[in-house]
Amino acid sequence: MNDYDCVIFTHGCFWHHHHCYLFNVPATRTAFWLEKIGKNVERDERDIQRLQALGWRVLIVWECALRGRAKLSDAALAERLEEWICGGGASAQIDTQGIHLLS
């Protein structure tokens, strides 16, 4: 979205280790999964830092905001997206609780 200098990612809660009800470490091969998911998180952080250094704002929309028992309504999601895209705010994330700055 060049006009708004923003990049939007949709992250799966399992694959990117979101602290929500959709993330559960598998009972088998636990060490393998923790290492794999940990590398995903490291890559995400590195990629976000690189994009920000190039002047891009980054928004992560978490899977739990899009599906499941606690998902946002279509209207609520659209409002949060418009608020962030058009408002020019800092890098952020959207989950079941709404929009929050990236930490």
From TrEMBL:
One of its GO terms (biological process) is mismatch repair. It is an enzyme of class 3 (hydrolase). It holds the Pfam family Vsr. InterPro entries: DNA_mismatch_endonuc_vsr, Restrct_endonuc-II-like. Keywords: DNA damage, DNA repair, Endonuclease, Hydrolase, Nuclease. GO terms for molecular function: endonuclease activity; hydrolase activity. This is Patch repair protein. It comes from Salmonella enterica subsp. arizonae. The lineage of its organism: Bacteria, Pseudomonadati, Pseudomonadota, Gammaproteobacteria, Enterobacterales.
